[in-house]
Design brief:
The complex is a heterodimer.
Chain A lengths: L2 H22 L3 H21 L3 H25 L15 H21 L13 H9 L4 H22 L2 E2 L2 E2 L64
Antiparallel strand pairs in A: 1-2
Helix pairs in contact in A: 1-2, 2-3
Chain B lengths: L1 H32 L9 H11 L10 H20 L15 H21 L4 H32 L4 H6 L6 H4 L3 H12 L23 H26 L10 H22 L5 H28 L1
Helix pairs in contact in B: 1-3, 1-9, 1-10, 2-9, 3-4, 3-9, 4-5, 5-8, 5-11, 8-9, 9-10
Classes of the chains: A mainly alpha, B mainly alpha.
Chain lengths: 232, 305
């Protein structure tokens, strides 16, 4: 067994083991960077396979991608900063079945396929060839995939960000409880803007020009607070 | 033989460069403040010794693996970055044809490592520093890649030695005047320095390293210095002709150019103040990024002509 074979097996084990840990960890940030480790191992395998550009570019792209993914996941989830432990898997039965089918299918393909033995000749300009392919015959596929991905990203950010064009995206939504069947987690905004008129002149400041005698039945219809009619 | 010499050269440049940056820091800040300079050559070593003797701080339930590894990974990335820089024709550690892409990977992984350093401490200010750094560090990294692609166009290659050789007639700093000034921002951002220090800034009481002390802190600080050295060597190779130059041997030219760029970077870091992150983001995306596009378009037009 040559050094390259050894490196291939070591990197394969690393890639698979880190990929497995992605589903066993309890944090989105850890999951992202475990996946990054897995991809780095795959990128190094590509280096062994005489695909230097694809290998290094995989490391480069996945580093950026996992960083952005961790950031966006934390941004769009209710888990502040990503340090709180959380369950990273769901739909267990379906996932188990899908995983088993995919594994058996892929394993069957590797077993029944006759893979070509076609070593890359030393000195072959692989990077130039790849560039010519990507921006030559395959340009339409390559560019359509790129534009489609970009449109998907923009669309999903628009759909999931809070400050949407048609109002707050989380209007009417409730965060899940911390314990099963409990109260929704997090702070519930007070109804009607959280104003208290029990202490006129102190909590409200001078802008309302309150009557110091605390006129009963007085309303504040003009102070920008919906539902702000209080009796004292 | 050349490989071993280059390896030792990389280590020596990282070590001496780091010391040179601290001495420059003392020199420039002392000059600007009108302070007597004193023994600027010894002080970095004294500070290192003091950190080595200091207690190592602990936090409540940190992600210990990432927290302890981040400084070492940062230092390793500086070494990998310098490995793509040729010291002379043929004297480069990473001699595959994709040096520019590997440098890009180093930039991207640096953002990851700095983020993990702040995130894993389980400390408020460190975490703010980490997230803030990602927001600023990623666009700066993106910007730098456009500049590097522009520099690779006349060479028609992604290998750094080829980019150096393409500057035999004219250095890229003149051929692509927008390139070097914009690329210098990356150096400040990669090493958390001056106006681009959003990770370890004083407004966050030290940011990602607020809880880090002792030997870990020493490695972290050395890694920041070493990364600046690797960056300056890369910038001088891509924009200032690297080892090219008359009379002197190639490695000497590379070291001289790197030292000059380091002096410039340290001065910039002291002369410019940090903007608030939101203003910096606006500046990056609306002004600096389009400038990088223009740089790339001009390089493309020149390559076609």
């Amino acid at each position: 067994m040559s050094g390259i074979d050894l490196a291939f097996y070591a990197l394969s084990i690393l890639a698979i083991a880190r990929g497995w840990r992605v589903f066993a960890t309890d944090s989105m940030v850890r999951a992202s960077f475990l996946l990054l480790l897995s991809f780095i191992a795959v990128g190094l395998i590509m280096l062994l396979l005489a695909a230097p550009y694809l290998g290094v570019a995989t490391v480069f792209m996945m580093a950026v991608e996992m960083m952005v993914m961790a950031l966006f996941m934390v941004m769009f989830m209710m888990n502040p900063a990503g340090l709180n432990p959380m369950m990273m898997v769901h739909q267990h039965r379906f996932s188990l079945a899908a995983g088993a089918v995919a594994f058996v299918g892929l394993a069957a393909i590797t077993l029944v396929t006759e893979f070509p033995v076609d070593p890359v000749a030393a000195g072959k300009p692989v990077i130039r060839d790849l560039g010519t392919e990507l921006l030559g015959n395959s340009m339409l596929i390559f560019e359509s995939a790129g534009v489609t991905l970009l449109a998907t990203m923009v669309g999903s950010v628009i759909l999931s960000s809070r400050s949407g064009r048609f109002g707050a995206a989380d209007a009417g939504s409730k965060p899940p409880p911390l314990v099963p069947g409990g109260e929704p987690a997090g702070r519930v905004p007070e109804e009607g803007g959280g104003h208290h008129h029990h202490d006129h002149g102190h909590s409200q400041g001078d802008e309302h020009q309150h009557n110091p005698s605390h006129g009963h039945g007085q309303t504040h219809g003009n102070d920008g607070q919906r539902g702000g009619c209080h009796e004292h | 033989m050349i490989g071993l010499a280059t390896f030792l050269g990389v280590l020596a440049l990282l070590g001496f460069g780091a010391w040179w940056v601290v001495a420059l820091d003392e020199l420039v800040s002392g000059r600007m403040a009108g302070r007597p300079l004193g023994r600027i050559a010894v002080r970095p070593l004294q500070r290192a010794a003091a950190l080595l003797a200091q207690q190592q701080n602990e936090t409540e339930r940190p992600d210990l693996l990432n927290w302890k590894l981040a400084p070492a990974l940062y230092l390793a990335l500086a070494g990998v970055g310098l490995a793509v820089v040729p010291f002379a024709p043929g004297a480069v550690l990473f001699d595959r044809e994709v040096g520019i892409v590997l440098w890009g990977a180093v930039e991207a992984l640096t953002v990851v490592v700095v983020f993990l350093h702040g995130w894993s401490a389980n400390s408020q200010l460190a975490m703010i520093g980490a997230y803030r750094y990602v927001a600023i560090g990623l666009p700066v990294m993106l910007l730098s890649m456009f500049l590097l692609i522009a520099a690779a166009l006349p060479a028609e290659s992604l290998s750094v030695p080829a980019v150096v050789e393409s500057q035999r007639g004219l250095w890229n700093v003149l051929r692509q005047p927008l390139g070097l000034p914009l690329f210098l921002l990356l150096g400040l951002s990669l090493t958390l320095r001056g106006p681009f220090n959003y990770a370890d800034a004083s407004d966050l009481a030290g940011g990602t390293s607020v809880e880090v002390s002792g030997a870990s802190r020493l490695v972290w600080e050395i890694a920041r210095l070493a990364m600046l050295v690797a960056f300056a060597a890369m910038a001088s190779s891509v924009f200032l002709g690297g080892y090219l130059g008359p009379w002197l041997p190639g490695p000497v030219w590379l070291v001289v150019k790197t030292a000059v760029l380091l002096a410039l970077l340290v001065t910039l870091a002291h002369a410019f103040a940090r903007l608030s992150p939101s203003r910096m983001l606006t500046l990056l995306w609306t002004v600096l990024m389009p400038l990088a596009f223009i740089d790339l378009i001009l390089a493309g037009v020149e390559a076609l002509a």
